[in-house]
Design a protein that fits this description.
single chain; 142 residues; alpha+beta; 3 strands; 19% strand; rod-shaped
Length: 142
């Protein structure tokens, strides 16, 4: 009886492998948290880039009005915006250029709307839809 009691006490005190089990329970949460932080940083960077693209494209359209040597068209402004969207998937980038009164004469305004569907890393794992990022910028044509 003493041997059985001694064996049970030893077995109760032995903790071999408990670290592995604890790690297996905690690791998925740590990985999800880390990937979530990375995704959040990527979303913020992309949103800032979209804002920059809209502002630069509107500025380009405003300085290339009807009186300019190189007159901006909706296509040329969209191409300029796509060129400024460094690091973004061009297939997901949508640029809409709107001139006040449908003409780019001095004194009118031009508005550039940029839409981008951002795909999260966690989106594929957890089934999220892409995040729709939008920015708009309006300038007066000079």
């Amino acid at each position: 009886m003493a041997k059985i009691t001694s064996f049970l006490k030893t077995l109760w005190r032995k903790r071999d492998g408990s670290e592995v089990v604890e790690f297996a329970l905690v690791a998925p949460f740590v990985v999800l948290l880390t990937v979530g932080i990375i995704d959040f940083g990527r979303v913020m960077w992309t949103a800032t880039t979209i804002e920059h693209v809209a502002r630069e494209a509107a500025r380009y359209a405003s300085v290339h009005g009807e009186g300019s040597i190189t007159v901006a068209t909706e296509t040329s402004v969209a191409n300029f915006a796509a060129g400024r969207a460094t690091g973004l998937d061009q297939a997901e980038l949508n640029v809409v250029v709107t001139y006040e009164g449908n003409s780019n004469i001095s004194g009118n305004t031009v508005t550039v709307d940029v839409d981008y569907d951002f795909v999260l890393i966690l989106g594929g794992l957890l089934g999220f839809d892409p995040v729709a990022l939008e920015s708009s910028s309006t300038f007066t044509i000079i």
